[in-house]
Amino acid sequence: MDIICLPFQNLSLDQLYEIMRLRQEVFVVEQDCPYLDADGKDQKSEHLMILQNGELAAYTRLVPPGISYKHYSSIGRVANGLRFRGQGLGKKLMEQSIQECLRLYPGHSIKISAQCYLEKFYAELGFKDLGSRYDEDGIPHMGMIYKQDK
Fold this sequence. Notes:
This protein is of the alpha+beta class. It has three helices and seven strands; from the N terminus they run E-H-E-E-E-H-E-H-E-E.
């Protein structure tokens, strides 16, 4: 297993293609949620990838403060390829994403828009429920925070 975190400008065309393919496979096809994935945040973000045997298995987008949320960094587009589920990659992916966010954006807590059914998963990683529930692209979501000074 290899873990790579790169800014957008350092992604190869093949890496970018695989990221976009995985995001569409999970969010658009599997979750049946047509939405504009190319939202203008990718170019300003870091892209964390877990590769197994050279194949993209899991991915997150690490967004700096001021892009998605004014005073928080953010982890988004959390995707785990269907063939790679059940191997503990989701937890490994998020643990590494948290570490990278804290390293890249020191002094900033992390805010996420979590799908409600994953509340327990994120809580076990240290995220706290903000109490807000909302619909995002037809899927119930909730705001959660990981405090830098846990």
